[in-house]
Design brief:
Elements lengths: L1 E5 L3 H13 L3 E5 L2 H10 L4 E5 L7 H10 L6 E5 L4 H10 L3 E4 L4 H15 L4 H5 L2 E3 L2 E4 L4 E4 L2 E3 L3 H11 L8 H9 L9 H13 L8 E4 L3 E4 L3
Parallel strand pairs: 1-2, 1-3, 3-4, 4-5
Antiparallel strand pairs: 6-7, 7-8, 8-9, 10-11
Protein name: DNA-binding response regulator
Organism: Motiliproteus coralliicola
Pfam families: Response_reg (PF00072), Trans_reg_C (PF00486)
């Protein structure tokens, strides 16, 4: 995912950029509204995160200008302004979501993922197409899984996690992303449920095979790849 962060607080911008980068995303940061608007117009971004109070052009006018030019990229406002009126104005300007400071990165990431899913829904054919990686196969329609021709029985959440991994091969999925996708949590419940689920899934799809597919990147997340 390619993200544009328009934020004049370098500490916040660095915090957000680091969080997304650890998940394998690419983040461009800019500290004023004029340069942010220019980069948004010239670049091809999957998501734009905008502060309201910016040097030069303010964040709301950046969003208005982009929407007026026909831009459909998802946009999230980050702002210290917390009143209902401020949130309503931000959404009416054309942003897709509004998050007040201070905020948690896990919530920002969860909201970003939700916006991207709505912006790029899978086609009916793509949703039901058989998923394959190496000798691992999952049929979303029949709810079956096999590896090297051997049937593997999975519990519903194990199946949902494997399907998520197979739709994102080679991409590191953080615990927050998995929580948001598999459990539909928009917050971190501070438990080890993700680790336990990954451990159960790994035991079923990797334990009896020489080539391991499900890998842990300590402190970052999990990825389906050939070693």
């Amino acid at each position: 995912m390619k993200i544009l962060m328009i934020e004049d607080d370098e500490k916040i911008a660095g915090y957000v950029a680091k969080g997304f980068s650890e998940c394998g995303d690419c983040v461009d940061t800019v500290t004023n509204g004029d340069d942010g608007l220019a980069m948004a117009i010239e670049g091809s971004y999957d998501l734009i995160i905008v502060d309201v109070m910016l040097p030069g052009r303010d964040g709301l006018s950046v969003i208005e200008e982009l929407r007026g030019s026909g831009a459909v990229v998802p946009m999230i406002i980050l702002s210290a302004k917390r009143s209902v009126e401020d949130r309503v104005r931000g959404l009416e300007t054309g942003s897709d979501d509004y998050l007040t400071k201070p905020f948690s990165f896990s919530e920002l990431q969860a909201r970003a993922q939700a916006l991207l899913r709505r912006a790029k829904p899978l086609s009916e054919a793509g949703l039901h197409a058989e998923l394959r990686f190496h000798d691992l196969c999952l049929d979303p329609l029949r709810k079956t899984v096999s590896r090297a021709g051997e049937t593997i029985l999975l519990q519903p959440r194990e199946f949902k996690l494997l399907e998520y991994l197979l739709r994102n091969p080679g991409r590191v999925l953080s615990k927050t992303m998995i929580l948001e996708h598999v459990w539909e949590f928009s917050f971190d419940p501070q438990t080890n449920v993700v680790d336990v689920l990954v451990c159960r899934l790994r035991a079923k799809i990797d334990k009896d095979f020489d080539v391991k597919l499900l890998h842990t990147l300590r402190g970052v997340g999990y990825v389906l790849k050939l070693a």
